[in-house]
Amino acid sequence: MLVAFYGVLIGHIAVLVFTEICCGLVELFFILRLCRFAEKKRLAIFVFPPYIASVALNLVYLQGMIRLPCFPDSLAARSWLLSAYSLKILSDGIIAGTMIWMLYHRSRGVRSQGGTIRVIRALIYWTASTGLVLWLSTIVHLLTYTLLPATYVSLGIYLTRGRIYVIAMLAV
Question: Is the pLDDT of residue 1 over 50?
């Protein structure tokens, strides 16, 4: 019985760790993309501190989750999760805003050729909508975790959030 319990627990922890790894790698992909296409590298490097801090706090939260035997006990590690996701919201917003700003300023230097301007505007629209979806998924998870802490609603949103991040990266 004890082996079966820990087997299920390890399975749930593996899903949580996999989701965090996916979200972190997608954010890192977008940050590296910013660094690659930025004319001023300082602007792209501005995005790194909130990302690194959110990854560190997520690792602390996941380490705390491994020690807790069931989901309602995870409320003990609530402050780590709130801190990590607040920084994730900031990081997602900065990434999306920086990408939109860079695309907008690059489009101003392009001569008025209809096709190129339309492509750049489509990229700006896609970046804004994708960044907004990623940003809103993190906000909704944080709100449901705060407002409905003892339910599985936030866990369901959390598990879909990793897939939303991966789909956003694959859409590039």
Answer: no
Amino acid letter at 63? Q
> Tokens 């209809």 appear where?
114
- What is the CA 93 to chain-centroid distance, rounded? 10
* Distance between CA atoms of residues 105 and 89, nearest Å: 24
Q: Could you give the CA distance from residue 121 to residue 124 in angstroms, rounded to a whole number?
A: 5
Cβ 138 vs Cβ 165: under 8 Å: no
**Amino acid identity at 59:** L
Domain that holds residue 65: 2-170
With beta carbons less than 8 A apart as the criterion, state whether 48 and 14 touch.
no
Three-state secondary structure call for residue 45 = helix
Contact (CB, 8 A) for 160 and 144: no
Domain count of the chain?
Answer: 1
Phi, psi for 148 (deg, rounded to 5): -125, 65
Q: Residue 2's pLDDT is what?
A: 39
Taking only the tens place, the pLDDT of each residue in 71-114 is 556 666 677 778 888 888 888 888 888 888 877 777 676 666 66
Alpha helix (H) ranges present in 68-113?
78-108
